[in-house]
Fold:
Amino acid sequence: MGIKTRITELLGIEHPIVQGGMMWVGRAELTAAVSNAGGLGILTGLTQPTPDALRAEIDRCRTMTDKPFAVNLTILPSINPPPYAEYRKAIIDSGIKIVETAGGKPQEHVEDFKSHGIIVMHKCTSVRHALSAERMGVDVISIDGFECAGHPGEDDVGGLILIPAAADKVKIPMTASGGFGDGRGLVAALALGADGINMGTRFCATVEAPIHDKVKQLLLDNDERGTNLIFRNLHNTARVGKNSVSDEVVDILARPDAKFEDVASLVTGAKGRVLLETGDLDAGLVWAGQVQGLIHDIPTCKQLIDRIMAEAEEVIAERLNAHLGSPPAKASSQAA
Ligand SMILES: Cc1cc2nc3c(=O)[nH]c(=O)nc-3n(C[C@H](O)[C@H](O)[C@H](O)COP(=O)(O)O)c2cc1C
Structure:
């Protein structure tokens, strides 16, 4: 049967399921597996150390799939920013047709991508930012609720409100992001007004995710309470998996006058990378969302996507359909 939406049509994919950009995780293995399974896989641009390395990774991904895939460009405040314009040029030169942007002030990137005919999906965590990205000319909004791994913003609005609030105002297609991991979530996202879902944490617990098995097991072992919110007092909130390092960061930043410098050495990307690659769960931060509470196995991307689609169709055709139509037998006999 299949579920067709504005997202499947626009992106040329079979199922309305997108794999969000993920630092150190969004490599060709995962991206190609998601795209081959009928979703949209996304390479994470800055995971590659240089723009040339990104070109090579795009080429490598093309040897693994002939389906559409995208590249994520995350623009975060940084003392030594990466050469964003050069990464952007590598993406454009490589003939990539879909880009996911995330972070602040994407205007110059959006304009350049759009002038090269690239479809731009922008990830935001508030209705006002979604509307401003729409005015900027992006093609798709990925609206990320408070449940999400990564940066949920400072408004603390969960998807149950954020998605329909955005759908009331945003005209372009939207993927709902944050907390999605199964077919029930996909149906809920569609019901709330989105055109598909974007998943991060759930795709980390798949066979093809290029991270250590112990990290995948952590995502299984943790439940929906297994996250910490860090950097709250720095107004740069991040939701990460609960471990000894994120607990320590929360404790340190709870002190009066705590500054970023007090935790800087604990939260480096390099340490997070060591955790993902070695499975040393106390090596650094691990990014993970509340959806850990819905993760109970480590399927291939194809098994996961097929299962989500089958479950979504079953929920619509049976569970929801059962609530429509004739009233319960007793009530109808009384009415007769
Ligand atoms: C390990 C990991 C790394 C991530 N890195 C990035 C990133 O570099 N850029 C970005 O835009 N989002 C990043 N995210 C956020 C995801 O793209 C996505 O928005 C988020 O995971 C959705 O919430 P969920 O985890 O509940 O599905 C990351 C998420 C995870 C789990």
Observations:
- The first strand starts at residue 17 and ends at 19.
- Residues 20-23, 25, 44, 72, 74, 102, 123, 144, 147-150, 177-180, 198-202, 204, 287-289, 291 surround flavin mononucleotide (CB under 6 Å).
- Confidence is low (pLDDT under 50) at residues 331-336.
- The chain is about 40% helix and 15% strand.
